[in-house]
Specification:
This protein is α/β, with parallel strands linked by helices and about 500 residues long. The chain contains 18 helices and 18 strands. Bound molecules: GDP-alpha-D-glucose (GDG). The site of GDP-alpha-D-glucose (GDG) has 20 residues, from strand 13, strand 14, helix 13 and helix 14. It holds the Pfam family Glyco_transf_20. GO terms for molecular function: alpha,alpha-trehalose-phosphate synthase (UDP-forming) activity; trehalose-phosphatase activity. This is Alpha,alpha-trehalose-phosphate synthase (UDP-forming).
Length: about 500
């Protein structure tokens, strides 16, 4: 019943995330000679949470990573932000190169990421993981210690993501019982069969059950979490109907909340765009073409090779589309240095070259591939201009790009081709063209369906999707989290609310 403003009884908010909301840098990369400038939050969750932490005069604990970052903090790593209107404390944790290698590139991204995305073959095997896991634990301890420095009995601690699977329990041990710990897990949760491959299965579950509230994007991930607890953790009692897990004297409530995007901003930005011809020409795309678009981090979970295979099949089957349709794939390199990501980059680039040499002509390429980072304005322009947006992950917690595209489609004439294996599909599946990315023939046929769809049907589907994306935006997601946190936090000490 406590709808909306869960922030009401919140006196002290402590956010924990890997990425920091503000970065300090030396101007012109001049080393410590230059003056220090500040980077604003880049977008997404960080930008969305910033005003909430400001309003709460809270604390944000995150990894700080440069000399300039620490030149402005006090001895404890704290600095007041934002610089122009100091509203909250940013507490930066400094990590050695070895810690980053093992905690971030190692256990987080070569064990937990492939595990949760159902790529057991990519999980670091051999001895590497044991050392990585030790560092993961050490870093989680350091964050937990930082939380303990700031926490009071009134505190709400809100932890973000898979980098902090052990922190909740470590925090619980150090802070007053009345404080509330909540956590949002932004990626999928694996099946029990896959979870068996987790080298630190029990400790991870025990860690996460230090939370009072654990959130996922969709019901399925929460259910899988409960199944894993039941199978792999002795002594835990799972209430599948009420979504509660009792363990070691504490109760963890599970919740789902599908994350949204700042839809109004995407809409406004897309409306202000003054054409994309110049941008397309810069990439080597003729402004006249029918445009397909892909926007992803260069990650093996995003199904980019599968998308290229479907495009090749599409051009085989539709010779009349050659010269007329171009697919622009924007890929942002990420986690470079991890072998699986290096291999993926090589595969994608060589497949693009091969397909282009098969169908391309002197003045037309079927696939234009770029790893250039584009501004939010340009991104919105491309979303608006795209005739078909293609999102084909093999598994994706939510996928915000799908929603950003919908929010930017102000002319209501673009079609969303969307993998059924994304959290976003639970929201948009009814009005998107659904694909299984591994079924190349059906995927190619879906591209045909999208490009041949009559304008009236495009509009009808896009309107439905826009209703969803604007109705359940980033702010609504945060409200729902804080309402759930508020119900636990403000009622602690009184009777259970159900
Ligand atoms: C994880 C989960 C979940 C990309 N290239 C550019 C650019 N981007 C931005 C997009 C979007 C973001 O990066 C990617 O977000 P996704 O949600 O698609 O995917 P992940 O990075 O894997 O995020 C995912 C998410 O967490 C939130 O919970 O949805 O399932 O995997 O915002 O716009 N932005 C700009 N230029 C680029 O070139 N400006």
């Amino acid at each position: 019943e406590t709808e909306g403003d869960g922030l009401g009884c919140l006196e002290s908010l402590i956010v924990v995330s890997n990425r920091q909301p503000y970065r300090h840098e030396y101007e012109d990369g001049e080393g410590d000679e230059g003056s220090i400038v500040v980077d604003e939050p880049a977008g997404g969750l960080t930008a969305g949470l910033d005003p909430v932490v400001r309003e709460a005069n809270g604390t944000w604990i995150a990894w700080g990573d440069g000399d300039a970052d620490f030149a402005v903090t006090d001895d404890d790593g704290c600095v007041a932000v934002p610089p122009d209107e100091e509203s909250y404390t940013l507490h930066r944790i400094e990590l050695s190169e070895e810690a980053v290698d093992s905690y971030y590139y190692g256990f987080s991204n070569q064990v937990l990421w492939p595990l949760c995305h159902e790529f057991p073959d990519l999980i670091d095997d051999g001895d590497a993981w044991a050392n990585d896991f030790e560092w993961y634990r050490t870093v989680n301890e350091r964050f937990a210690d930082a939380v303990a420095e700031h926490a009071t009995a009134e505190s709400v601690v809100w932890i973000q993501d898979y980098h902090f699977g052990l922190a909740p329990r470590l925090i619980r041990r150090q802070i007053p019982e009345a404080a509330t710990i909540a956590h949002f897990w932004h990626i999928p949760w694996p099946t029990p069969e896959t979870f068996a491959e987790c080298p630190a299965d029990e400790e991870l579950l025990v860690g996460l059950l230090g939370n009072d509230l654990l959130g996922f994007h969709v019901d399925r991930y929460a259910r899988l979490f409960m199944e894993c607890v039941e199978q792999y953790l002795d002594g835990a009692v799972v209430d599948h109907d009420r979504w509660l897990v009792d363990y070691d004297g504490g109760t963890t409530r599970l919740a789902t909340a599908a994350m949204g995007v700042d839809a109004d901003t995407y809409d406004e930005t897309a409306r202000e765009v003054e054409g994309t011809d110049a941008l397309l020409e810069r990439f080597g795309v003729s402004p006249e073409v029918t445009l397909g678009l892909g926007v992803d981090r260069l990650d093996y979970s995003k199904g980019i090779p599968e998308r290229l295979a479907a495009l090749e099949r599409f051009f085989e089957r539709n010779p009349d589309r050659r010269g007329e349709f171009t697919f622009l794939q924007k890929a942002t390199p990420s986690r470079t240095g991890i072998p699986a990501y290096e291999r993926l980059g090589e595969l994608v680039r060589s497949e693009v070259t091969r397909i282009n040499s098969r169908f391309g002509t002197d003045d037309w390429q079927p696939i234009v591939y770029t790893e250039e980072y584009v501004s939010r304005e340009h991104l919105c322009g491309l979303y608006r201009r795209a005739d078909a947006m293609v999102i084909s992950p093999l598994l994706d917690g939510m996928n915000l790009v799908a929603q950003e595209f919908v929010a930017s489609s102000v002319d209501e004439d673009g079609v969303l081709v969307l993998s059924e294996h994304t959290g976003a599909h639970e929201r948009l599946g009814a009005d998107a063209v659904t694909i299984d990315p591994t079924d190349t023939d059906a995927f190619a046929a879906a591209l045909e369906t999208a490009l041949e769809m009559p304008a009236s049907e495009r509009r009808r589907r896009m309107r439905n999707m826009r209703e969803d994306v604007f109705g359940a935006d980033l702010e609504a997601w945060m409200d729902s989290q804080f309402a759930a946190i508020g119900r636990l936090h403000c009622s602690s000490g009184s009777d259970d609310d159900e």
